[in-house]
Structures are given as structure tokens and as C-alpha cells.
Amino acid sequence: MERTGPYRVELDESYRPLPAVYLALLFIWFLSACSWTFNTYKNRHFSTINLQWTLASVPLIKALQLTLSFLFWYSCFYHQKCSLWMSFGVYVTGVLFQTAYFVSFILISHGYCIMYEHISISDRRTTAALGCVFYLTLVGYRASVPYFTVLLLLNYLISFSMIFRQISQNLSVLREQLSFVEEEDVQAMYDAVYMKYTMFKKFQGAMQIVVMAETVIHFNVDSSSVNYWLRLLVREWAQFCIFLYIGWTFRSQAWAPRFSVMPRSKGELMVPPIYSIEMDAETFREFSCREWHIGVPTSTTCDEGSSDPIVVVVQHPHRLPSGVTSS
């Protein structure tokens, strides 16, 4: 931008495509936000609904940022008025989007609503602390405060290391569950466990792409205005495709039978490889296995035309942490 008078600023013509670019991106993200919110509300009875509402907030924030960006550049070019407050709104919503985008990845890596109903208190505190630090360092980085580039890099290294470590732990647990299912020949649980394993493998691959994309974005030395709109379009489109892929992987849907999350216990975590399995009373009377602990007749799940109740067989972990007793 070049100043031509005390109150007028002449805009570089290379920025003229920006209103059209922001409008197109706004349409895409707004459509995504509406469809995502509608799908989440429609499938609100599924166990992953809390994660879905968290993910649904990300495209809503992005749509707000793109709306302000479009209004700012449109008013600059076609009304010769560049609002300081609107540019500040673009700045704040952009930082909020990046933070929400990042925190959602941390929650997924912890297995929130996939492996467990709730993450532990220590994990919540860690996630909140990383989110706050990431927000503050991103504010300093975008404001070109000295040394904040180094702080943001350190934040990325710590956070991505933790994300990949959590993903590896969840994959290890799921591999153990799959091995146990195959050894015990409990095929009814295989599809549910394998679905979780596939979801985390896809998420692991997506996060590797995120690392490469963030590296290219933050270390791009080309700051010229020439073809800025093209670089912006590529960056925003890559960001949208990554989030769309992750969101589609963890979308609200009818999961495989017996796809259920495991509640966390106090003390050391020990996730049993099988949560529950149902069988009729006749099969249960002939069932003999020391791994299975108790059979509970249920009246809520049995069919009205069935004379025998359905029996739920619950399996306990192989090992129990010290101080935790089975019930």
C-alpha cells in the first residue's frame, strides 16, 4: 500500500483478486460449517457427539474470519475505506481459528470420545495449557514481536511430539485388542476395534501432512505482493482439505456394532480388550471360560417375542492396577 495523501491510501493492484478469493473461500467454509452442524445435530445421540461439536466450531470460526476478510478488502477497493477494527477482527479470528484447529487435533490424539468418554484431568490441563501458550505465541508471531518465531517453533515441536506419542499409544492399545480378539476368536468385536485402529492410522497420516504444511507456511520467505492471492488460495485450500479429511474420518455416523468408548479409571489406566458381548441364555449356560467374569440377565434389550432374556457377559482386564479392585 502507498500513501497518497493525509487520509487516502493507494492499494497495490496485485491485491485486487482478494475479495473474490475470500468470497469463494467463505462460501466453501460456510457450506461446510452448516452441513457439519446439521449432521452433528442430527446424529447427536451417538457417543462421539462431544468431539463433533468441538470440530463443528472450527469451520464456524473460519467462516467468521473469511467474512471479515472479504468485507475488509471489498471496502478497501470499492469504497476506499479500510477499517482498522475490521482488520483487527480478521487478526483475532485468524488466531482463534488456528488455536481451535490445533486443540481439536490434541483432543483427537488423546482418544477423546473414541477411546474414552472423557480425557483425564491432567490431560485436560495439558491441552488447555498448550492451547493458551499456542494462542499467545501465535499473537506475538503475527505481530512480529522479536523471538516469538522461536517460541512458536518450540511450541510446535512440543505439541506435535505429544500428539504423535499419544497416537502411537492408542494404536499400540488397539493392536493388543485386535490380537486378543483374534486369539479368543471373538469375531463380533473385531470390526469395532479395527474401525478405531483405521481411524487413528488415517489421523496419523493426516498429522504428518499437517506438519509438512505448517513448515512450508511458516518458513515461506516469499513475502512479495506478486501472486499473493494465489499463495493464499493454495494455503487456504490445503488447510480446508486437511480438516475436511480429518472431520470426515471422525464424523458422526452409525459405528460398527459394539463400537463403544471406554471410561477412564482412577490410577494407572488398564483398558480391557473387550468391553461387552451379548449372547442368549442357552449359549451362556454352555459357556465356559475363565476370562469371562459374570453374566447379567437384561430385560431392556430383550425382544418382546423372546422367552429367554439376553445375557451380557463382561470381561475384566488381565491385570488390575494397584489400589483398584474389580466389581
Overview of this structure, please?
The structure is a single chain. This protein is mostly helical. It has a single domain (15-250), classed as Rhopdopsin 7-helix transmembrane proteins (Up-down Bundle), CATH 1.20.1070. Helix content is 60%, strand content 7%. The protein has helices at 18-42, 49-78, 84-109, 121-142, 148-184, 190-218, 228-249, 281-285; strands at residues 2-3, 9-10, 276-280, 292-298, 310-315. The strands form 2 sheets. Strands 3-5-4 form a 3-stranded antiparallel β-sheet. A two-stranded antiparallel sheet has the order 1-2. Helix 2 runs antiparallel to helix 3 and helix 3 packs antiparallel against helix 4. It starts with a strand and ends in a 12-residue tail after the last strand. It comes from Salix viminalis. This is LUNG SEVEN TRANSMEMBRANE RECEPTOR. The chain crosses the membrane at residues 20-41, 53-75, 95-114. Keywords: Membrane, Receptor, Transmembrane, Transmembrane helix.
Keywords:
LUNG SEVEN TRANSMEMBRANE RECEPTOR, 8 helices, 327 residues, receptor, transmembrane, disordered N terminus, transmembrane helix, mainly alpha, Rhopdopsin 7-helix transmembrane proteins, 7% strand, 5 strands, membrane
